[in-house]
Amino acid sequence: xxxxxFLVLVTLSLPLLAGENAxxxxxxxAGGSDGAVEARFGMHPPVPVRDATGAVPSRLSSIDxxxxxxxxxxxxxxxxxxxxxxxxxxxxxxxxxxxxALPDSTAGLLDAEGRVPADKLAIQAPxxxxxxxxHGLVHEGPLPLELPADFDTxxxxxxxxxxxxxxxxxxxxxxxxxxxxxxxxxxxxRYWDVHAATGVGCTSCHYVSNNPGKADRTVRRELxxxxxxxxxxxxxxxxxxxxxxxxxxxxxTCHDPLAVHGDLPFRERHMEVLACQSCHVPTVPxxxxxxxxxxxxxxxxxxxxxxxxxxxxxxTPTVRLTRGYQPFLFPALDGDQVRxxxxxxxxxxxxxxxxxxxxxxxxLEAALMDRSGKFRPEVLAVxxxxxxxQIVGSELRMDTPEKREALTAALASQGxxxxxxxxxxxxxxxxxxVVGKGFATHDCSACHSPNGxxxxxIPLAAWVPYGAPTSPEMAxxxxxxxxxxxxxxxxxxxxxxxxxxxxxxxxRSHQLWSDTVGFTLLGMTLVALGAHAAxxxxxxxxxxxxxxxxxxxxGEMPEPLLGEPVLMYSLYERIWHWTMAASVxxxxxxxLGIHYPKVFPMLQFPRxxxxxxVAAAILVINAFLALxxxxxxxxxxxxxxxxxxxxxxxxxxxxxxxxxxxxGASRPFRKTRDGKLNxxxxxxxxxxxxxxxxxxxxxGTWLWVAGWKPEWVGxxxxxGWVASVHNLxxxxxxxxxxxxxxxxxxxxxxxxxxxAMVTGYEAEELEGKGQQVRLSAGASS
Amino acid sequence: xxxxxxxxxxxxLTGLAAVLTVLSTACSSNxxxxxxxxxAPPEHRAHLDHSAFFPDRxxxxxxxxxxxxxCHEGAAADLMNTAHWTWLGAEVEVPGHxxxxxxxxxxxxxxxxxxxxxxxxxxxxxxxxxxxTDSQFDFEDSSRVDCLVCHDRSGQYRKGAGGVPESxxxxxxxxxxxxxxxxxxxGVCHNYGxxxxxxxxxxxxxxxxxxxxxxxxxxxxxGMLCIDCHGGAGHxxxxxxxxxxxxxxxxIGCTGCHRERPHADDxxxxxxxxxxxxxxxxxxxxxRNPTKTNWDWSKAGDDSRSDNVHKYLKIKGEFVYGQNxxxxxxxxxxxxxxxxxxDRIAEQGPTVLNQPHGSMxxxxxxxxxxxxxxxxxxxDRKNRVLLQPVTAGEGGYWHNFDWDKAFRLGAELxxxxxxxxxxxxxxxxxxPLSHMVAPADKALRCVDCHGPQGRMDWSALGxxxxxxxxxxxxx
Lengths: 781, 475
Known about the structure:
The complex is a heterodimer of chains A (about 775) and B (about 475).
Chain A: H1 15-24, H2 35-41, E1 47-48, H3 65-68, H4 75-80, H5 93-97, E2 115-116, H6 118-121, H7 128-135, H8 161-166, H9 194-197, H10 202-205, E3 206-207, H11 235-240, E4 247-248, H12 251-254, H13 267-273, H14 276-280, E5 288-297, E6 303-308, E7 328-334, E8 337-352, H15 361-368, H16 377-383, H17 401-413, E9 420-429, E10 457-459, E11 473-474, E12 482-486, E13 492-496, H18 512-551, E14 562-567, H19 571-595, H20 605-632, H21 646-663, H22 679-706, H23 716-743, H24 752-759, E15 761-765
Parallel strand pairs in A: 5-8, 9-11
Antiparallel strand pairs in A: 1-2, 3-4, 5-6, 7-8, 8-9, 10-13, 12-13, 14-15
Helix pairs in contact in A: 15-17, 16-17, 18-21, 18-23, 19-20, 19-23, 22-23
Chain B: H1 2-27, H2 61-71, H3 75-79, H4 83-86, E1 91-92, E2 101-102, H5 120-123, H6 148-151, H7 171-176, H8 183-190, H9 217-220, H10 226-230, H11 266-269, H12 277-281, E3 291-296, E4 312-313, E5 317-322, E6 328-332, E7 351-352, E8 366-380, H13 397-400, H14 403-414, E9 422-432, H15 446-449, H16 458-461, H17 467-470
Parallel strand pairs in B: 3-8, 7-9
Antiparallel strand pairs in B: 1-2, 3-5, 4-5, 6-8, 8-9
């Protein structure tokens, strides 16, 4: 036989909702009719109320919903398909589908046929208030929000659980309008929840799963050729058998994040690795539990709770300064894949028996108190330090072996075998308290920074009861990597060791090897160039002295034999070169801004990202145009090493830089219009243009495409590797740039090469040495 | 060539800097997107210092006016064409009435102090003139124009009975102080209309003399003055309340400065077709000081009750005041009906003295916020017209508490016959709200109107059900 008896009694009188109704009245304009109410209750037909015997009851509390609601709805089927009516949970129809505060007597409600009109029963689709009666702090109406006086009393079925465990409050009001004790409150003009403010209620997202009005659920994902199943349930059939296994909508059920976020660089990449809530629940202004200590209960039978985001001090959270907190971001399964999502971490301390099963609240209450709710004398004797007959405040903390023994004994007396204290950390997703775009996280450095929201330590338990394990078990709701450490104050913190799941976050994540190799290379280059320059200066002075001795103070060094200035670099070549120089410089600078936002804050991370992409595009276009130019004009031959005797010639050039240049030897190769590059340059440019350039362009494009079409470039792990190679390449580029600039000073004067690249003109070097040639103005310094 | 080359190097850097600058400016947004292009909070120019012009003392207000007119020759003629002087609007056709007529404070009936006739000396404290104490006032005498009430900046200028300066006012100091009208100049009358602070308007009271931005964002945050919106050339102050006219006020509106669709959200912008800006941006009125919402003349004259300016006065009857009130919402296209002296009162229900025009079907109408002032005021039981008692005037009700005599005196002055039988009937007056605009973050949010907790009476507005679910009207 199907279960037809429903529990309705508990929720027939909903004092919270009644209070809200009363609150609405004073602000209603005089003379306004209650049209909204008619519209809400008007459709439901009168209910033939019956009690369990089938008779018309005299009290609403004795209604049998199986016989009453069941006259139209298939109550048996509904109860078998119902999250709220499974296991120990038995929530009846009327708890959610009436507005509460009904008179108990049916006299005056009944019509001639023993039916009660729907408006008298206040039958409705579940309102936010209905859900909030059990699930969390739901606030409606014009009166300012304040924490309820009983917020600090945690009942067995914590009716404020959502708010307590995450700090979120479902209210359409602005934080600034609340009565809560929040610093700089007037500036906090965000809504407690933007959905509440825009009329999106609980049932908008948590809805009956076969509701034909929610067409998105009518087609299974596998049926790709169908957008909608026209054979969906008829409204009549749905009303008879609504499937109360509630569906939970995701953000994307209603929102298309890619249709907006136009100003977010790497939009698709962000959407791939971030849950919407990560940015859209930037802070939670309400008090969220950090610790729920169920080892000992207070006289209200409530465990002790420590909250994060609340200033230290005595008293309930309702009176203390509430600063709120930033939810902690961890990779976790978000719909179809793992994304960084916001969580609160709540440490529970609780008793377990020998089998490791948690001791129930009833057993604990019975162990601590007698039937009238007074602490047992043996408990009182140990816990009541000041002897005032009460156990309050810090006295409640089980922090000594004596207290622990007293409680162990008390529990043992209730039949709990070998009671011990256990701990676990609940990883509580934060999905409410959503803000719109205006208040969402806009500061890139919140994550793109080595000490942003992805790093640092997270306070866990505010205290550890005596004898409790100092590393409570962490729930696996999210991928959390880190070590639980006990602080000097006695609490526990989680020291995060990076983000697991290989989420590479530019500006924050650094692959040690690429930074090390790159930095070493740069250092070696600098040292080598510095040493080379120093030797050049020293040797030049020495030779100067030698020449002075030889030529009786003429002070002139022998110079290479130079011809007339020729157009060494065409206008296009110069434009190309300097465009390349500017774009490479911009890329290196903005790259530093992206890779080390903390070291170079003046480069402004978001701006660096934009400019980096633009400069890269300029560089690539410039490179291809130059390739075309060099091919078309055959100037490319200048870059191609001679086939014969290349290596010896290369060695000769290297020898010149290593020795000859200090001895005043002439360059082994002459720079002429048709032979601008020496073998060393040729091999460098071949490597640069065929290895480093393509490597940077490929990895850079990869990273850029990852921000735009993440599915094209494969798994997330690649991002870190590609970014590291790109990073290493930029170190190489920087090293090249330094050497390149240094080597421009090795012309016949310090600035001859640079000047040539600016003006285009440079004297060709002629055969012979030691002959002094008066140069035209173009070559004098 | 070298010098040319020297400048080319740095120019590349300059170019790069320029590119960066262009990029950065392209990324950042500019200004208040809700404002029209070119619109900006007004700047207030300094007024010519008049302190050296008037060394001698003045005997009367009219002497001051003559001194003003000796330089500002056309000023009085200008003002004498405006309602501040005539207390009448232009010729209009009042709906439901034949021909056209001029209506204004001078000849209309309201449900506050009822009417001016017979009570001139008391009412004309707020006339921009001197000495209007009876029906014989000379509206052509330019020396009777009161320049100071609007231009005094000394802060000690006060008008007494008939609008003449109270004794003790230093007229020379007032004359020397003159400047452009500021909020307190306008407020000295408009904040106190109906005989006390905040009696009439609900969206105008002394909180606007030194407002916070919560009182009014334009005046409090931007420091705007009344004349920034209402100012016009030739002393012609723009704007008109529905209480004293039937035609569209014209000339002033939010869209004078703000864009038609000012929100960065299509859902909000789509409201502008059907909802006046004021509806969301004036979430409540009389936020700091209470305003009168109900005036029951029938309770007047009771010696047994003690006087309390917010609850009961023997001469005026019983009041209800309210603070931080939720407006009532009606369709309104800017025009309205007007009850004129001698019109018949409603057979059933309250007589609406100035019914705003508009309905859901009226494409020009939008949902507006109103203060509705409800009253019980005297009517002729037999002739079914509203009566205009003499109250403050000689022999009036305030002197000897004799209604019958007060109505007879009134009838003599107005020429509307009085049958000798009177009763008190319910009346309503509509006051559209446009001031006390809250900052954007205090404006109404969706659920203030939509959903189960909403404040709108959708049935009464003609929607049947919440348009958030069923859709708005076709436009």
